[in-house]
Amino acid sequence: MSGVLPVDKNGYIVSNDFKTQAKYVLNTLLTNLKTLNSDFDNVLNFRVFLSDFASQFDLFNEVWSEFFINAETLPTRSPLTGGPLIPGALLTVDCIAKVRDRLPLVGIPHDTPSKVFQNIMYTSGVVGMDSSDAFEKQAEDALDGLAKVLADQKRD
Question: Which CATH class is domain 1-100?
Answer without folding.
Answer: alpha beta
